[in-house]
Amino acid sequence: MSINDMSFKFAGEAGQGVESTGRGFAKALVRGGLYVFALQDYHSRIRGGHNFYQIRVANHDIYSHDEKVHVLLAFTQEAIAEHLREIVPGGGIIYDPELQVDQDALVSRSVKAFPVPVNQIAIEEGGNKVMSNTAATGAAAGLTGLDLEVINSVIRDNFAQKGTAVVESNLKVAAAAYRFVREKYGDSFAFRLQTRKTAPRMLISGNEALALGALMAGCKFVAGYPMTPGSPILEWFATHSKDYGVVTKHAEDEIAAINMVIGAAQMGVRAMTPTSGGGFSLMVEALGLAGMTEVPIVVVNIQRPGPATGHATRHEQGDLLFMLYAAQGEFPRIVLAPGTIEQCFEAAYRAFNLAEKYQCPAIILSDAFLAHSPRALELDALSLDVPIDRGEILSDEELDQLTTRYQRHALTPSGISPRALPGHPKAIYSTSSDEHDEYGQICEDAAIRIQQMDKRMRKLETARAEMRAPLQYGPSQARLTFLTWGSAYGPLRSAVDILNAQGTSANIVQIMDIWPLPVDKVVQALQGAKKLISVEQNYSGQLATLVRAYTGIKVDGLINKYDGRPMSPEYILARLKEVV
Amino acid sequence: MSINDMSFKFAGEAGQGVESTGRGFAKALVRGGLYVFALQDYHSRIRGGHNFYQIRVANHDIYSHDEKVHVLLAFTQEAIAEHLREIVPGGGIIYDPELQVDQDALVSRSVKAFPVPVNQIAIEEGGNKVMSNTAATGAAAGLTGLDLEVINSVIRDNFAQKGTAVVESNLKVAAAAYRFVREKYGDSFAFRLQTRKTAPRMLISGNEALALGALMAGCKFVAGYPMTPGSPILEWFATHSKDYGVVTKHAEDEIAAINMVIGAAQMGVRAMTPTSGGGFSLMVEALGLAGMTEVPIVVVNIQRPGPATGHATRHEQGDLLFMLYAAQGEFPRIVLAPGTIEQCFEAAYRAFNLAEKYQCPAIILSDAFLAHSPRALELDALSLDVPIDRGEILSDEELDQLTTRYQRHALTPSGISPRALPGHPKAIYSTSSDEHDEYGQICEDAAIRIQQMDKRMRKLETARAEMRAPLQYGPSQARLTFLTWGSAYGPLRSAVDILNAQGTSANIVQIMDIWPLPVDKVVQALQGAKKLISVEQNYSGQLATLVRAYTGIKVDGLINKYDGRPMSPEYILARLKEVV
Amino acid sequence: MVTVKDYFSPVRPTWCTGCGNFAIWNALKKALAESGLAPHQVMLISGIGCGSKLPDYTTANGYLSLHGRTLAVATGARLANHRLKVICTHGDGDGYGEGGNHFISAVRRNIGLVDIVQNNRVYGLTKGQYSPTSPHGFVTKTSPQGAIEHPFNPLTIALAANGTFISRGWSGDVEHLTWLIKEALHHRGYALIDVLQPCVTFNRVYSYDWLRPRVYKVQDDPNYDPGDKAAAFAKTQEWGERIPIGILYRTEDVPAYEEQVPALATGPLVKQPLRVKTMAEYERLKQEYL
Amino acid sequence: MVTVKDYFSPVRPTWCTGCGNFAIWNALKKALAESGLAPHQVMLISGIGCGSKLPDYTTANGYLSLHGRTLAVATGARLANHRLKVICTHGDGDGYGEGGNHFISAVRRNIGLVDIVQNNRVYGLTKGQYSPTSPHGFVTKTSPQGAIEHPFNPLTIALAANGTFISRGWSGDVEHLTWLIKEALHHRGYALIDVLQPCVTFNRVYSYDWLRPRVYKVQDDPNYDPGDKAAAFAKTQEWGERIPIGILYRTEDVPAYEEQVPALATGPLVKQPLRVKTMAEYERLKQEYL
Ligand SMILES: Cc1ncc(C[n+]2csc(CCOP(=O)(O)OP(=O)(O)O)c2C)c(N)n1
Ligand SMILES: Cc1ncc(C[n+]2csc(CCOP(=O)(O)OP(=O)(O)O)c2C)c(N)n1
Ligand code: SF4
Ligand code: SF4
Ligand SMILES: [Mg+2]
Ligand SMILES: [Mg+2]
To answer: I need a surface site. Which of A299, B403, B472, D213 has the fewest CB within 10 A?
Structure first.
């Protein structure tokens, strides 16, 4: 018997509530004191197709799903066909007996059938078939011995808006399904869950953490155009707009969105636009505008597989080098690529500081896997320790003292020119996307061009000094060193844990502060590596290219993936055999 | 006394005809059997400001201007103030005596004053002050002993459209100015020109050669949106549209332009869009569309200084890395960066072959210096030797034989899927910017995603094999090896000639076939280098970064420039002292 | 003889049951067959969105481009091969939002396209944000307090941009829509068919039930003159208790863009040889630089 | 007291002698001074083009953005600080060509901007290509056989997009233009001032001499009702022998966008503290995930 170490998979068609049910169940598990990591998989269609929601549960913090399923909650026949082979021996399938299930196939894989008449229970106890999902969660609780109260508490919260009657019906349905399973199957199932007493914890996804980080950083203006998987951030802000005083604008297109953000930021407001690669492509020209006019903006690219429309709802990390060089000409920018939920928060929170300190665009490069996958986090996991730093903004009092004409682009050793926000009578200025002089006036003079270029590019060196060293995980001396970035970190961390447990020492160098690359710190982190392997969810190994270009260090191998589905620890370990 | 080795500088305000006069004079020199290289410099304004047109003349082919001026034709006082210090001792200034000229300043620099009443001559002989420019060219011919007939022949051609009266007046004006100078100054001037008997030669700029190359390659559709310095290509095609059967479309914006080009190319027409960096930025998303749907298009980026609007009429090579990684996701593309007028032609001519063979976007990365600077070329310098190769297009007859459903994206060893052009009853297909299967149908299957990604990326390797080795210039063994690309090649070539003449052996490795980088060929070209110095018109040394990223070879030094003005041989030699 | 069956495809639509796109799809296939156009004579171009998937479900030449770029791609395609009937099918977000600039330009340009806009007044594929045609006050994920903007009226805008064929159809009447598409296929220049397309999942306001009693056919009124611009202006502004469908404005007096391009006088561009007299042309061109 | 002199700048315009932009520049400065607005209370936002250089020549807050993006940047600026008067000055290529989608959106949105479009019906700064407002048949470098498209009529389009202040001025009458700008400055929402701006270098057709005899003021007719949409539609269509200038359509009944944004109810966004009760807010937000 195994306790608190298993995975659930909710699987069915789009429109059947796979995600909401899965998330509700995951939340219940968290409330029950367990740790969870959840993975979402869905098609770019509104109804039909085959989606799933996979929840890994443990007694300790986990950073990734894996390829083993213990309980499949199948809402369709296809779900069983699709996922049967993932179920571990002794695992089981909960399904409505209305589905035709090939029992022999289950038996041959030692998978147990747990037919539960969820539809009937929903209709009889709740009066509506839509509650069959609630029945399924009740059944899952019953099967694993999970305290029904944690399910009930989520039902109460999730249906509260729909009124007490709906809450009550769902509670009845859950209880009936729970009873049904307890009565019929008892404690026969080998994988069990026991609630634990812990302080309250959050279940939060990368996009949610990112939005939260941005809001806490004082982001007051968000403009965007819907694009999966970036739109949840726009929608998050739309929802919180009124209560938290953020102007949120669904614009006519991405070009408008980023230019609105520039307009707002130029006025002095912290402003951001979330999108995905395709939308980012449309924002490229404006990125240069922010660079040239030294307007601090935050652009969020939640990557998905390209090229072009690619796989709208799937996962890839294919945009790294694009972020570094997007837009004509050369100008400083910041690129942060979070790899965990905590880092999503941190990246958003820091990005505004960095953008404002260096008066340049800051890009947060996240990805679909990170965006969609909630994880259980302690309440203090998302730290506000870094103080808000708006950089060199001249106060009204300082501006009152000005005796000479204000120079928006003054030459300074750091390259940073103290900012005056428009509106003060002593600091009237105009600036331009054309090359300009210190005052912001259009200027074609060669010497001034050099001064302004040098000044802007100096900011990059100033910023480089404060970019953080790569995060290192695992023993400091190891036979294998993995170089990685973004959400590949999660499955890789699980894989490295397995390797070390098996006696193959391995560690991870994860680069979150991508640009300006803290070259010395990266060299220091990598120079001891015995065997260096890059792990990236893309075709060409973009981080490996970047590192070679700026440090000269070449990786010994690449573990990559580009089929739209995130890596798993198993995948990494299997590929590792090929590359070493 | 020096013969056929000097530079002229025409300088004055925008609107004074500096460029047209300079170009006319340069043309006359070419007709006189001389070699010329001309440099243009103008501001982003329509009237006023200070512009110049500099013409270097020689008895042999020349690839660059240099910093010595022998005759300044000053149309304004500012022109003298601005350029006096560039004039060599013994050189002179032709100007209208109406201008106030500080004679002492001239004397102190041993520069001779040649006041010529060009305005008066224009009015008296031609009846209109606008002909003062013609007078100036007549005067320049007189001063240097150039046969007036070559000037006359250009006048006849250039003014033919305006009628014989205008031609006659201009001829009279030129003759009068010529006479005036001959009479007043005789043969006193030390720098002289003698016409030579040669076969007819062209005076042609990079943009013109590029357009010509594209036309000869069978480009039949050009869409664009005006942007300096790319617009001359659009305008060239508009002008030639009717006579040569090319549909030319000034679109509503750059996004429309490239998408129109994709629509046209998808139908089977060779199609191109010219722009500059800012316009290219707007085209980034569609680049990925062409990549994903395997539509062969040609995109021309004539670089100018960024970021953003930057210096609209000036020069830089700041977009190299941007070209390689633009757009979300990964897909094959071709990047060719010409460095000479001949290569502009060649790049355009080859780009269509490469785009169609590999069914992907091909980018031509030229720059303002190349675009604007005409050079004298032999008539056979622009070679049509490469046969037109439309790649694997299935003929109607082949399609008639089809017995199975046509697969637009069939899996093949080369990655190239034979194309059917839409319209044949046997090859009806639809394809998509979403990931698709071999038929082009939207498909989210993981295995098919991998197949299609591998197939597309295989084309890159197939293409890499045919990418050309870098061009090498100079002795094969040398103390200094310069790595360069684009128009920096011209001044660098002159500098290298000087170095070798002075006994410092030096050679050049110029990479025109940028992407897919022919890594082996580049390594071979660079591996013997004793001291490797990159020469680039940008801030960060982008080619050096590229070479390091993919070959591991690191340059020993960088000679860069980013003030909007092209390099000169003198500049390179001066900077060389700093870097070695 | 061409039949609707010729347009059948093995691929099944992924649209939600009850989606208004089914009717548009059926009407289009019917109109094409009844117009005697075979699948290889037709090029369907779309963008990205629920409605934009239509070509993927249809046997005909097809190209699913980028969100918002439908008309630009189609313009290039049409200029490259005006022997093919180029038909666009895309959503209101694609056509009037992201693609707004191309829309106005296509109208002014009078380029020979049939433009079927699947106007469900919402973003379907991205799961229900408001669109340019969503009404003021429409509550969605990006407008929790209701959309502030006033809706984009495609018919009035098209009229203002000198459109030559301005029409509205609806998913509740396949016969009428089929007729409309057939008319559009005969139009010289750009033909707009804005289709009221119920989205049963994300737009509960503009349902079949809401629309059906309101919709009426302008062509039922024998006195309605689709050549009268002022009348058409008023008609395009009508919305609410009564919603006109049919051809609100039409003129056949304006030549299509492609009729006016010299290079297309001798036939489709794609059928013209790359160069007719290569060397002669080359020598002639080089003369310009002597 | 604010005077025109307050707006003077040491930088001299680079416009060609005789360019219609001088009049627009003077009218704007006059209108601002006469409206009692000081330079620090004004934000001039432009794009790229000859006309777009205006803020560079004027002492006021200014931002020269990208070609075509004027209105998008201005919208963000206005939403960030609606205490400043945000005024756009940009060309017809910028505003109606590259920026076409933002134009329609700004109109529908009724965002509080004064939008002065320097409509010379040509691309000036790039040396004379045809623009969206160039007439059919206009011969330029990109239209050697004459432009094929029919021109974009900004006033009709703005009307079709539910514009609330739709007007035309011209460079030949600084007084009238000054008045127009002052009216626009008082408008609630988006105010379009399309200005007939002669380009003496690249557009020899729409010269002062051609325009002067044609232009007449709609406000001279006491019966002209700028609140009547149908009449305004007809008026915006008038072009040729007689060209109306003045306020063709106006309503003050529609609230500006920024009036309807909850987050702006308590004053300009930029004046609001980043977070009022940081820790309390943070704890409240985290509750959502428990
Ligand atoms: C450049 C870009 N931005 C955003 C998206 C995301 N996206 C896909 S479909 C869509 C909107 C769909 O709405 P509509 O065009 O009305 O079509 P519908 O789904 O309603 O038929 C959006 C915003 C995208 N694919 N590309
Ligand atoms: C993205 C982009 N495309 C093109 C250009 C080049 N460009 C600069 S100004 C201009 C057009 C100017 O016309 P208009 O907006 O009418 O202004 P005008 O010069 O006539 O005042 C163009 C196309 C640019 N700067 N950026
Ligand atoms: S979401 Fe709406 S538009 Fe999309 S398929 Fe479903 S019903 Fe149709
Ligand atoms: S080119 Fe035309 S618009 Fe530009 S400054 Fe000269 S006259 Fe004015
Ligand atoms: Mg829609
Ligand atoms: Mg203009």
So the answer is: B403
